[in-house]
Amino acid sequence: MIDDKTKRKLLRELEKSGNIYFSCARIGVERSAFYRWHSSDEEFKKLADLAVNRGRENNCDIAEQALLLNVKEKRMDAIKYVLGHNSPRYKENVIIWHKKEEPEDYALRELTFMDMVKNYYEHIRKQNIRLKEKYENMGGIPAKADGTEIENDELFNYETYIEEWYKKKKIEENNK
């Protein structure tokens, strides 16, 4: 059973590091326990959030100190970083320009559902015309499996059937 003493230890570790995983590992508590306490104990949640923020502030202080040491050692990357982030004179000015252009064919973007349906049927009609010419040049349009004729407006739906029929016919002719 975890007691309040363990929670207090965890809060102290969080204040040092600001990292939940690292703090839990240091005192031997599973992260799942931390998150369980965090969701069920309102007081612990407030204290833990405060401790994590303080820990992160401490880490920032340590990082700033290391950065300043690098500046003192005249490391150019550190110098550029400090100047670029603290002096308007050395700050990189990036301008992002947003330009809104009208589409070339604005009518295409404003299609209604009915327009799309009409376009679909027009596409099918053109496909049927193309398929009729193709199959007439190949020797005609075969009948359906039930013996009825394939109508011109049905060609698109029967394209695979017709292709397979012609393949089978070609194989039969080659076997003769």
UniProtKB/TrEMBL annotation:
It comes from the Bacteria. This is Homeodomain phBC6A51-type domain-containing protein. It comes from Candidatus Falkowbacteria bacterium GW2011_GWA2_39_24.
